[in-house]
Amino acid sequence: MLYNSAALPGPERVTALFRRLSKPIRIILRWQLGATFAMALVAGLAAGRHGAISAATGGAISIVAGLTAAFVASRSSAKSAGGVLAGALAAEAVKIVLAMLLLWIALASYSAAMVIVLVGSFAVTMLIFATAFFIREY
Under a CB-based contact definition with an 8 Å cutoff, are residues 27 and 135 in contact? Predict the structure, then answer.
């Protein structure tokens, strides 16, 4: 067992992990990152540093939860319609639980958070994730 930096995934392994994600998820990830950046910029200009941090945190929570759900769904090797449905429901449950946990941690630990900005950016990026269904694979 290695206990140095050689045990960490290198760029080629991280790239392989993202390549396993479908084209719609990769497109949605780019949209979420762009929306999070835009909301953080607008909130930063309108409300200052805490507004920008709150918007970035809300977007990051949604992105992390969505990526985790995508990885859970991609690991499913279902061979029937029921298996596909079970895998999708498991991924959705992981996304919801992780998002709620991360929201709770963010709001409990960041006392200067602007709740409306944080929850707003979280909601917008979650809605963007929901549009992955409409993006074609080819």
Answer: yes
Question: 57, 66, 18: which is closest to 37 by C-alpha?
Answer: 57
Q: Whole-angstrom Cα distance, residue 47 to residue 50?
A: 7
How does pLDDT run across 72-129, given as a tens digit for each residue? Answer: 888 877 788 888 888 889 999 999 999 999 999 999 999 999 999 999 999 999 999 8
State the helix-helix crossing angle for 115-130 and 23-47, rounded to 10 degrees.
Answer: 160
Reading the block at residue 42, the tokens are 């607008």
Q: Is the pTM here over 0.85, yes or no?
A: no
CB of 58 closer than 8 Å to CB of 121: yes
- Report yes or no on 115 lying in a domain: yes
Q: Which domain holds residue 87?
A: 21-132
Say whether pLDDT at 2 is over 60.
no
Confirm whether 28 is domain-assigned.
yes
